Amino acid sequence: MYTLLSCNFPNSKQHQVSLGTVLRRILLTRYFGNQRLLSKSESVSSGAFSKTSSGGGSPGQDHDRPGVTMVDIQWLLDNVGASELVIDIIVSTKNDRVFEESVQLGISLLRGGNTQIQNSFYHQLHKQKKSERFFKVFYDRMRLAQLEIRATVSVNTFELNCRKREEDAEGSGIRHKKGRDSLHLKEDMRGQLKEASSATSKAYSTIRKEMDPDLEGSGVEVPDQEEEQLEEAQMSAPITIMKPILRFLQLLCENHNRDLQNFLRNQNNKTNYNLVCETLQFLDCICGSTTGGLGLLGLYINQRNVDLVIQTLETITEYCQGPCHENQTCIAKHESNGIDIIIALIVNPIYPLGKYRLDLVLELKNNASKLLLAIMESRHDSENAEEILDKMRPNELVDVIKEAYHQGVENEEKDLIGDSICSKDVGHNIYILAHQLARHNRILQQSLKPGVEIDGEGDDALRYYAKHTAQIEIVRHDRSMEQIVFPVPSICEYLTEESKVRVFTSTERDDQGSKVNDFFQQFDNLYNEMTWQKKMRNNGPLFWFSQHISLWGSMSFNLALLVNVVVALFYPFGDDDDEGVLSPFLSVLLWVAMAMSTIMLFLLPRPNNIRVFLLCGILRSIYTLGLGPTLLLLGAANLLNKIMFLVSFIGNRGTFPRGYKAVVMDMAFLYHMTYVVVCTLGLLVHEFFYSFLLFDLVYREETLLNVIKSVTRNGRSILLTAVLALILVYLFSIVGFLFFKDDFRMPVERLLPAHPHLYREAAAVLRDVDTCTKENCTGPSVTTSAMFSSALEEDEEMESMCDTLLQCIVTVLNHGMRNGGGIGDVLRKLSKKEPLFAARVVYDLLFFFVVIIIVLNLIFGVIIDTFADLRSEKQRKEEILKTTCFICGLERDKFDNKTVSFEEHIKSEHNMWHYLYFLVLVRVKDPTEYTGPESYVAQMIKEKNLDWFPRMRAMSLVSGEGESEQNELRSLQEKLDTTMVLVSQLSGQLAELKEQLSGQLAELKEQVRGRKQPQLQPQPQHQSQPQPQSQCQPQLQHTFTLSQLSSQLAELKEQSYSQSQSKPQLQHTSTLSQLSGQLAELKEQVRGEENSPSPNLSPSITHSPSPSPSPNTPPHRLYSEVQLQHTAMRHSTKH
């Protein structure tokens, strides 16, 4: 079951359904056996499970239910008690096969990191108190495997000696060619035989399946499984069982289950089994560290156990990620050589496994680097990093990075890249590890910079990894900031520069002044564009067109401009013979200009040279082909160029793959389609359609767009103001119609009946010809010209423009709005003697002030103010782009006089494209491979919560401000360490003093008991008067010493407590409390002994000489030493 379910299906629903179906079949077969299936169909052979399923059974029982995923099957099995069954079998069984199958069942239930199943296991173990026996089973299995490894480990000395002989032969120039060839022949034959055996097994399996389909799913082992079991059989059973055990423990902690991570380390039982440390010891054992072979990993790690080593690394990695700081510390501070082993797996070559299975070695190094990153994940201190750096040389890590890169380049040149892990990717993970460690080691930090080495060897590797590595800062739930370093996904290389510029300039700020919200909303479109660009790279012509989209756009505008210039200069076009004839000199000059512009176009393909070439070509075509063909040629070229631009636009934006709705809503695409239609109309219908193409200048220039926006942005205000103007015009029209109807008389000019120009010509010719002279005519003299002039003047007459109200409205609207003085400029001029003169003056002035000055200026003011706002907004936006961080919103002046400049901040710390790359990484990465920060961000993205973006914060500013505090805490740490040493010395001296005083008090008790007398007669006072002073002096001296020590210890306790407030994690209070308790106990004993003599004792007995203190350590000397130490300690604490 484990073999069938261990395939890494893609994260699609179809594969999830198939995986759930396979799991369901296997579990039903193992649980019910074949008897239940046989009863459902008569035509069932042994093992014909597929036929039974497809035959007659109930849908809910025998055949597969469509749409059921693996997660649904896992939940269903957990609801019926599968997790409890696994725990019970593991705890109770003694059979290795049953134990292994139960572990495999647990793996199948937990596959994919199912949180519900994990919680079910946790509650079963935690509530029912089964954890002690459950973890004891795994603990004993790990111990047994380690003992088995130590007992059966052997070093392949034959291969070691062969390598040594080859190296010696290379050094001395003597090589046994025959022996070497025979050795290589054996290795080559071994590989060929293995490949042939694998191919034969696969072919045999295929033939068996074709001949008898019932064998599929019947439980018959396929040859691949037999081959794997044959290799695993070379390891003993206690070692082989460790792989599923470690996989089970890994899945318990999958997706960073914090409860189970801590539970595997500490169960809070009577007997605690730390499986985290035990797993690390198992890694230490299997890699040969316990046998002293740390430098010979290749002799202990071979093809048989490399998968087990990889699984161990993956399990320990899952223990630490999340992060789980306790497990990180437990692994980093463990007494075994676990960290040394992990470092050795990265920096040391693994020979001979790397010679014929390089993919396994790369996977091993990759997992080892991930484990070290997991140990340092999300830690704000440098303890674990320094622990790793202490056990490695920085240059070794850099050498491994360069070697992995060059190995990957060689594989790419040889086309050896397959589905397995790439050397470049392994080198990239190790580079990220070195990048994280470089923050705590200046030598490593300098080594990662290209150009440090004189010969420059390997700089290309460092440049490549630096270019493809990004870092961001995120904010955790507790508002602490964390830096994440990650590899840039390969798909991000397809993000075009045009899209970057568009997003950078068009992203809008929200109410809080942040651009993150709008930037996050554009992520889906940007990701789809990158996906489309990646697909488009496979289409060569489309990719070529898309690369030159800016060129097509520029050419399109230039061609439209030239076409309209030709139309404006030469329309209406005559016959083809009207193109004109150039003089030979000008013709030759034009040919020379054409040739020179062609040469300059190929030598320097700049926009100005392109324009000169087109101008020379058009002039030459006009005087060679004619205006009509030239214009037709220009129109066809413009149409073809615009089609090429449209293809490039679709290639860059991926319009059609997004669906028809996206096409309709994409205004840019609709604009370019309209442009193509206009070009077609100009080419096929009429040349005047080309004039609409000049509006492309408005689309290309942002300033002209602002002019249009100045009208459209406040269009509602302008429209309402225009409606107000119409209402006023309507009212003035009514007044004019009622009172000033006769004043609406205006001169009009009528057209002559036919050919009026002939009348004017005749009048000009006959201007001086008279029909009669003064001598011959009795009447007035009339000239011919006067006659024609009077005929023309009769066409200019006065008409009434307000016969109807509608005609009056049109007149007021037309003439009143267009004249600067209003309607009064076109009405009849009144005499002051007319009765309506005053009313007419008021009428004209009101129209002028209300309509012309107020209403029209309101409209103009709205447009002008909007344009000014747009201009200031553009300037403010440009200022924000230059002086404000896109991500956090901090301004440039915040980084003045700081360790990091504003340019470095927006380039490395808060690079907006690095955040986009991280979003892409979270989307394309397998969720089970997430690190702790990646899981946190993925959950926040799922909830559409953007609090993980830093807002008005930066780690460089916080670290700069807190650098002095860190130095103070570091100095305080050193002082407290010194204080702890002094306190330990003081505690030792107090213990010695306690022992001495206890001995003296015991002797005093014995003397008092031995000298008790039955009679209570007092001795003469003069005999015993001086004696008590000498006898009690040591005891009083002890009391004085203890009181002084007590006061000194109280002061020391207060100082240590004040220091511990700055560093809460320092645990000095408990030590001082113990010392205080011991001192108090000692003082009570002394006081008790002082008051112990009974009142009926005689003075002689009471004043008997007490034993003196030891001459080696007298109390007053002990007190002086303690006082000197305390003075030194107080001095160090002050500083």
Short description:
This protein is mostly helical and 1135 residues long. Helix content is 67%, strand content 2%. The N terminus is likely disordered.
Describe the structure in your own words.
The structure is a single chain. By secondary structure, the chain is mostly helical. Among the domains are: about 160-225, no CATH class; about 470-535 and about 890-955, no CATH class; about 540-580 and about 625-700, no CATH class; about 715-750 and about 795-865, no CATH class; about 960-1010 and about 1030-1090 and about 1100-1135, no CATH class. Helix content is about 65%, strand content about 0%. It has 53 helices and four strands. Strands 1-2 form a two-stranded antiparallel sheet. Helix 40 packs antiparallel against helix 44. The longest helix is centred in the last third of the chain and has 56 residues, at about 955-1010. The N terminus is likely disordered.
Any key phrases for this structure?
1135 residues, two-stranded antiparallel ribbon, 4 strands, 67% helix, disordered N terminus
Give me the oligomer status.
single chain
Q: How much of the polypeptide forms β-strand, as a percent range?
A: under 5%
Indicate the mean pLDDT: 75
Shape annotation: elongated
pLDDT < 50 runs, ≥5 residues: 1-11, 35-64, 155-159, 171-189, 207-233, 778-782, 1013-1036, 1060-1069, 1093-1113
Order the strands across the largest sheet as they lie in space: 1-2
What kind of sheet is the major sheet? 2 strands, antiparallel
Strand segment count = 4
Helix content, binned percent: 55-70%
Q: Which radius of gyration do the C-alpha atoms yield?
A: 49 Å
Number of helices: 53
Keywords: Membrane, Transmembrane, Transmembrane helix
Organism: Coilia grayii
Domain RyR/IP3R Homology associated: 239-345
Biased composition (Basic and acidic residues): 1081-1090
